[in-house]
Design goal:
Elements (H helix, E strand, L loop, with lengths): L5 H6 L2 H10 L4 H8 L7 H17 L15 H7 L8 H23 L5 H7 L7 H9 L12 H30 L3 E9 L2 E7 L8 E6 L5 E6 H32 L3 H26 L6 E2 L5 E6 L2 H10 L6 E5 L5 E5 L6 H15 L12 E2 L4 E5 L12 H15 L4 E5 L8 H17 L3 E5 L3 H9 L3 E8 L6 E7 L7 H7 L4 H10 L2 H82 L2 H35 L2 H28 L10 E4 L6 E7 L2 E5 L4 E5 L3 E5 L3
Length: 723
């Protein structure tokens, strides 16, 4: 891939994207790098950067947040390290130590989470962790930025001497203060500080009575500031010691600078790594704000952008809380060039800039705001001609500039090129300019270049209609209000709506009619046909969306009814189970009631207990059988595979059907019983037993105790005839 021309980047407003990216960087070096970002020419590096940004973006939505990469630049320190016998300042050493510890933190983090961030982990593998530098600096400078006492033996001795001398100064000053205070030589304030020294505040009249060095006097002249003579000799000693301390610190820092000087190249690599991390984090933040992602990168030449947003327009409208219209556009081998036509202010230029800006952003390692099912490829060249580009300084008219630009296109255009031209062929005589534009477009077509152009020329629309790998497209308009809907529609040319828009803006109809008569009748009819087609498409689009809405509603209603049906079925089954259970309990209760009545009459306990035990054992044997059956069934279910189980179920169903048929045949073969009032009966399907109350014309009223029901005698079977 060759570098993309700066004029192309300017046309597509790429510098504004860089400004927005720089604003999201946290370090100064990161901001500088962001402003210098340009499309990459090496495809492997580009894929790595896109992948790293995508991984960083994923870290925002999982618990493994990447550590803070903030650092202060050490550019000045790196320059000093290249010069012999230079000494770094304490602040410089602290910045270097922080840089090293941040690198160590990142190395450990990405090693731990290498599965989550494989590309970022691979990037950290390119640098080696350095614990020597922070250890050396930490041994000399503490966390408050002070030189440690034990940085050298001489420094420790000097500081002990300084503390001793300061103690003597305070002691001697205190003695002088109390002596002159008792003599009433001092003012009410007693003492003060002058030039960082403690001084006695002596009344001016007693200045000759106090031995020492005069350091100044008050504004009024009533007070003279004097350092006592005894303190002065210690102050001189302190100054000498402080000078020695300063020299020793400089020697220690020189030694430390020389120790880390060989590591300058490693420090430079660390700074580059963290600058790159800052850029990657800023790209991820930028992507997060505009819902950008990494689409499929295709090795084939195809550009399928689904629901693509113009990044700058999307972010601006997001702040204003306004809607941004996405575009869907496809450029493939069998559909290489798209000719967009239609009226002005319909969104043609925005669509063109969206495609160009997204391609440039992608080739600069930035994620783009498109649907995840989009597919993109890389182009070796991206050529643009957007805007009038008049130049007073270069004495170029719009058309002259555009011809020079077209000449460049002809020299550079090949099958790995994406060209974007706004208002193709304008700036000259419409007939001649249109013919020349058609000739240019044919050359681009023959060279198998990919491109999108916008035009009003009818001959270019016709060319797109005739060529097999070229497609017309238009920006949809509302046929009633003539307002743009900002939706790109592939497959047909767009009407310019020239006369319709003029009429809407209040131009007299008589004038419009006069204009219509002046132009070629065929052209008017062609434009009118296109306009009619667009209106029909608009109607069809609305009808389709309405039908889709109705279909969705019908599906939802069907699903709701299905759920309701399932619930009713479940309730009925529960009621049946409850009813059967209650019937069993009533039957059991009747048995117990009969036993209780017998005991009431004969008062014999043994028959009572034996009868009760028999009932309990009978019930338990039923429970045991059912539990054994359940256990066996569970065991069988565990052993069988899903396939075997299906086969068994089919077999069981078949057996049930056969048994059912046999039972029906047997039932038919049986002589129909003659029912009498009082017979105990039950229905063929049911378990509940009742007694017949009345019989009339093949119908019987059966009494179940709690309720009665009227059924056909054909549905009844005899349980027990009345005695």
């Amino acid at each position: 891939m060759e570098p993309i021309h700066s004029k192309t980047l300017q046309d597509l407003e790429f510098p504004i994207v860089l400004e927005q990216l720089a604003a999201r960087c946290t370090t100064e070096l990161g901001k500088e790098s962001a402003m210098e970002l340009e499309p990459l020419t090496h495809q492997e590096t580009l894929l790595q950067q896109l992948g790293q940004t995508s991984e960083y973006l994923a870290s925002f939505s999982n618990e493994n947040r990447i550590p803070n990469h903030g650092f202060d630049a050490i550019t000045k320190e790196l320059k000093l390290l290249q010069i012999e016998n230079t000494v770094l300042e304490v602040s410089g050493f602290r910045r270097i130590a922080h840089l090293c510890t941040t690198i160590s933190l990142h190395k450990k983090f990405f090693k731990k989470f290498r599965e989550y961030y494989p590309l970022l982990f691979a990037f950290t593998e390119g640098i080696q962790e350095n614990t020597f530098i922070p250890d050396e600096i930490g041994a000399v400078i503490d966390k408050f930025g002070e030189i440690r006492d034990n940085a050298s033996a001489d420094l420790k001795r000097i500081r002990l001497d300084i503390n001793s001398v300061r103690g003597k100064i305070n002691q001697s000053f205190g003695a002088a203060l109390s002596r002159y205070l008792s003599a009433d030589f001092l003012d009410d304030i007693k003492e003060s500080i002058v030039e960082n020294r403690r001084v006695l505040a002596v009344k001016a009249m007693h200045r000759r009575k106090v031995k020492g060095t005069v350091m100044g006097n008050s504004k009024t002249g009533s007070i003279v500031y004097i350092v006592p003579e005894t303190t002065l000799q210690y102050s001189t000693e302190l100054s000498n010691l402080e000078f020695e301390e300063k020299e020793e610190i400089r020697r220690i820092l020189l030694e430390l600078t020389n120790a880390i000087r060989p590591e300058a190249s490693a420090l430079e690599a660390f700074q580059y790594f963290l600058t790159h991390m800052d850029m990657t984090a800023a790209k991820a933040k930028y992507a997060s704000e505009m819902n950008a992602l990494l689409p499929e990168i295709s090795a084939e030449r195809k550009l399928i952008l689904r629901d693509a947003y113009h990044p700058l327009l999307y972010l601006t409208n997001k702040q204003k809380k306004e809607r941004t219209w996405p575009q869907t556009i496809e450029l493939q081998q069998n559909n290489r060039i798209i000719v967009i036509s239609g009226p002005n202010a319909g969104g043609k230029s925005i669509t063109l800039k969206t495609i160009g800006l997204l391609q440039v952003m992608l080739q600069s390692g930035l994620l783009i705001p498109v649907h995840e099912r989009s597919s993109v490829c890389f182009f070796d060249k991206v050529l643009t001609d957007i805007g009038d580009n008049q130049s007073i300084e270069n004495h170029l008219s719009t058309y002259s500039y555009r011809l020079k630009n077209m000449n460049q296109f002809l020299k550079r255009c090949n099958n790995r090129t994406l060209f974007l031209i706004d208002e193709f062929g304008t700036g000259s005589d419409p007939e001649l300019g249109g013919a020349l534009a058609e000739a240019f477009l044919e050359v681009f077509y023959e060279r198998e270049a990919f491109g999108v152009i916008t035009t009003h020329y009818a001959n270019l629309k016709l060319l797109a209609n005739e060529m097999p790998h070229m497609t017309n497209a238009n920006m949809q308009f509302d046929n009633r209000t003539l307002e743009p809907t900002f939706q790109l529609v592939l497959g047909e040319a767009g009407s310019s709506f020239t006369f319709e828009v003029a009429q809407k803006n209040g131009i007299p109809y008589s004038l419009i009619n006069k204009a219509k008569k002046k132009i070629d009748r065929g052209k008017v009819r062609f434009d009118a046909t296109i306009s009619k087609l667009q209106k029909e498409r608009s109607k069809m689009s609305k009808t389709e969306s309405r039908l889709q809405g109705e279909e969705t509603k019908a599906k939802e209603e069907a699903a709701r009814l299905e759920k309701l049906n399932a619930r009713i079925k479940s309730k009925l089954e529960n009621y049946q189970e409850l009813y059967d259970h209650n019937q069993r309990m009533i039957h059991l209760g009747n048995k117990v009631n009969d036993i209780a009545e017998r005991y009431f009459h004969d008062q014999k306990k043994r028959p009572l207990i034996s009868e009760l035990l028999r009932i309990v054992e009978t019930e338990n044997s039923k429970r045991k059988k059912s539990s054994v059956k359940e256990a066996k069934a569970k065991k069988a279910l565990k052993k069988q595979t899903a396939n075997e189980l299906e086969q068994k179920l089919v077999k069981v169903r078949k057996e049930k059907v056969v048994k059912r048929k046999k039972a029906i045949q047997a039932e038919k073969a049986k002589p129909r019983p003659v029912f009498k009032i009082g017979d105990r009966v039950r229905m063929h399907d049911g378990k509940a037993v009742g007694s017949i109350d009345t019989l009339e014309k093949g119908k019987a009223i059966v009494n179940y105790g709690l309720f009665t029901t009227n059924v056909s005698v054909d549905l009844l079977e005899l349980v027990e005839a009345k005695k």
